[in-house]
Amino acid sequence: MPPDVAPPLTPPSRLLDELSQLGGAIKRLFGAQLHLLAAELGLARSAVSWMLAAGLAATVAGVGFGLTVLGLIGLLLAEWFGSWPWALVTLAGLQLVFLFGAIWLFRRCMHWMSMPATRHGWGAMMRQTVQRAEQQVALDKLQDEGKPSK
Q: How many Å apart are CA 66 and CA 99, to the nearest integer?
């Protein structure tokens, strides 16, 4: 072959063309869903931030209210007993009763959640949710097959 003649060009690979077409199709197919997902995640992130701020404000207000009520109860007990030490001991006893009551209630709720009937109900609810979702997917698939393609 003479040096001034270029070698014949090989045709471009069909595999690369098909892969680029596949990438474009996937981008078009999932583009709208990704934009929707990004918008929903942005809203959820904003909502979580506001929920945390509201929870913090409610906690601060609740603690302040609780301390005020405890102070008033302590004052009333001090007037009633005529002694601050006895009022504080009584107040500490009341707080222990409430603490142990809250612990007992928490443990009781945990026991209820571990009971077989509760576990069975939870499992049935989850199975029913999955079954409904599968039925909806099958129905959507049938509806999509019945539509004329563009």
A: 14
Nearby residues of 91 by Cβ (< 8 Å), 6 or more positions away: 70, 73, 74, 77
In degrees and rounded to multiples of 5, residue 82 shows phi and psi of 75, 15
- Domain ranges across the chain: 15-91
Contacts of 74 (CB under 8 A, 6+ apart): 87, 88, 91
Q: Which two tokens stand for residue 58?
A: 């409610």
Q: What is the pLDDT of residues 129-148, one digit of tens each?
A: 888 888 888 888 888 777 66
CA distances from 28 to 25, 39, 67, 75, 91 (A): 5, 17, 59, 71, 67
pLDDT per position as a tens digit, 19-45? 888 888 777 777 767 777 777 777 777
Among 6-15, 35-44, 103-112, 124-133, where is mean pLDDT lowest? Answer: 6-15
Tokens representing residue 114 in the block: 């571990």
